[in-house]
Write a structure and sequence with these properties.
Elements lengths: L10 E6 L2 E6 L10 H15 L6 E6 L4 E3 L4 H10 L3 H17 L5 E5 L2 E3 L1 H4 L6 E4 L4 E3 L13 H6 L5 H8 L5 H6 L5 E2 L5 H9 L4 H8 L8 H12 L5 H10 L3 H12 L2 H17 L2 H15 L3 H12 L17 H5 L14
Helix pairs in contact: 1-3, 2-15, 3-14, 6-13, 8-9, 10-11, 11-12, 13-14
Length: 352
């Protein structure tokens, strides 16, 4: 029987040499983030920022499957159905952590090995040393559950070359190491078999740049998006999601046709809001401004029927047959999209 003051081991902290280590420790849940985990990481970063003995920070995931699959979307489903504020409270602290990581004054090293999705991208891709392996699968798959890319995802994807980020944001497609590097979601490739040696080098006190020079290399598989970029750039510059789909079908390329069919399976509302969010993010510029926008969108999405329905279909019942409302792109109005960007009220906005 656990005592009431039992230690929370869902995230572990250690300092060895001059390297502070964060280990997300929920391997059975693919290291999915909870609100207490976010708060504890933020507290640790505060302490290490002030500690002259800590020169750099490393974040990694326990187990062999990945760094982090995101947040607990079952909890978001339950919160949306109940109309409570748990998700909004979680996102407020999570987005603040994302901004904190982006401006952290010491090298923040993220081992983006295996699955890295949603909130996992938030605690890694805003760092300044982002390492992928041949096992990396990085995605922002929110449109498939009736949601919209958050955690600064529209900022990251909006800055990707050409329209690659728009393609990834709308389709929710996962990318491997080479494409992550191409899209500026990562900085370095290290073979998975060398991660233990790289980590040991950091823990021995070597500066991260020196360790990377020893172990970083080139991805073994090519970037698939390089070959696809011509039709991606042609199609995703369209003004509307409907026109994007039409252009994709008109390309005569099997991969473009597959992308169009993927889009038609996603939440029509989420697709239109996501397209608007990515384009607005480009205009906003700073990560902090984009996170404030994403917080509005996320909170307003809690009142959207598609969020509850999408999580039900993909995660709870797993019938993979969501009944979106509205059901088609043509039924989603400009006014319906605008509601997601509506102010929350002065006392509820995200301040960074």
């Amino acid at each position: 029987m656990k005592s009431e003051d039992a230690v929370d081991d869902t995230v572990l902290f250690d300092v060895e040499g001059r390297t502070a280590v964060i280990t997300l420790n929920r391997p059975r849940a693919l290291n999915a983030l909870t609100h207490p985990m976010v708060l504890r990481i933020s507290e640790a970063l505060t302490a290490w920022e002030r500690d002259p003995a800590v020169a750099q920070v490393l974040i990694r995931g326990a187990g062999e499957r990945g760094l982090c699959a995101g947040g607990d979307i079952r909890a978001i489903h339950d919160d949306a159905k109940a109309g409570t504020t748990a998700s909004a409270d979680f996102w407020r602290d999570e987005y603040r952590l994302n901004a904190r990581i982006a401006r952290y004054p010491k090298p923040y090293v993220a081992l983006m090995d295996g699955i890295v999705m949603g909130g996992g991208v938030g605690v890694s891709a805003h760092g300044d040393v982002r390492i992928v392996t041949e096992r990396s699968r990085i995605a922002m798959p929110e449109t498939g559950i009736g949601f919209v890319p958050d955690i600064g995802g529209t900022h990251l994807l909006g800055r990707a070359p050409g329209e690659l980020g728009t393609h990834l944001a709308l389709t929710g497609s996962a990318v491997g190491a080479a494409d992550a590097l191409l899209c500026d979601l990562a900085d370095h490739f290290v073979p998975a078999a060398r991660l233990a040696d790289l980590t040991a080098g950091l823990l021995a006190g070597a500066p991260v740049r020196q360790v990377l020079a020893r172990y970083a290399g080139r991805p073994t598989a090519p970037a698939e998006l390089t070959e696809r970029r011509p039709w991606i750039d042609r199609c995703y510059t369209a003004d509307t999601v409907e026109e994007i789909v039409e252009r994709l079908f008109g390309e005569g390329d099997p991969a473009a046709k597959e992308a169009a069919e993927t889009l038609l399976a996603k939440s029509p509302t989420s697709l239109k809001v996501t397209l608007a969010a990515v384009r607005r993010a480009r205009e906003l510029g700073s990560l902090e401004k984009v996170l404030a926008q994403e917080y509005r969108v996320s909170c307003n999405a809690l009142r959207s029927p598609d969020l509850v329905e999408g999580i039900r279909a993909q995660v709870i019942d797993k019938d993979r047959a969501p009944r979106w409302s509205p059901a088609t792109l043509s039924e989603v109005t400009d006014e319906g999209v605008a509601r997601f960007f509506a102010p929350l009220g002065a006392d509820r906005e995200l301040r960074l």
